[in-house]
Amino acid sequence: MGFYSDRIVPRLVDISCGMKFTEPTRRRVCAGLHGRVVEIGFGSGLNVPFYPAAVDSVSAVEPADLGWKLAGKRLDASTTPVERSGLDGQSLPFPDNSFDTALSTWTMCTIPDVDAALREVRRVLKPGGTLHFVEHGLAPDENVQRWQRRLEPIQKTVAGGCHLTRDIPTLVTNAGFEMTDLDRFYETSTPKIVGAYSLGVAASPPVRA
């Protein structure tokens, strides 16, 4: 990682993703998390205050040392045990069927091989376990999509590889998850090119006899 991606991007993400208007969305996506949780793209721990009481522990997957450092105060204030347990969502260091629930917030836009990461999340979830996610991605309106395609190269450069045009629900279902809840909407506090949100819950299919 270079100086910009290593020292600057984690601070930009902490500021931009830590704005007050994100809190209701974080609370909403964290609802229903329980048991052992794996969170990919833990960042600076912005979800920590919103973990429900039903969460027993969180295994945090986060490549940026600075992101983990910025999470310090949130971790100190939390009653939920959180351990930094991996660096790469594309290759999770956990056995199969290890977790009850998984969490991803504004992370799938940046992972280079998001298909591999989603397959890994499905692998480490127990059968019937759920992935809770909120992501920005491909807008439903063609005029917004045109601007997303135009600006994506700039976005990827300044925002650590962040894509604007990934179709998040399709990526999740293509990885073998079964969508159980999905809400697609524009976040009114941000431009539409980065505010086309998909918030949902997807289940890892149970083993069928």
From TrEMBL:
GO terms for molecular function: S-adenosylmethionine-dependent methyltransferase activity. InterPro entries: Methyltransf_11, SAM-dependent_MTases_sf, Thiol_S-MT. CDD domains: AdoMet_MTases (cd02440). Residues 38-132 form the Methyltransferase type domain. Coiled coil: none annotated. Transmembrane segments: none annotated. This is Methyltransferase type 11 domain-containing protein. It comes from Rhodococcus wratislaviensis NBRC 100605. The lineage of its organism: Bacteria, Bacillati, Actinomycetota, Actinomycetes, Mycobacteriales.
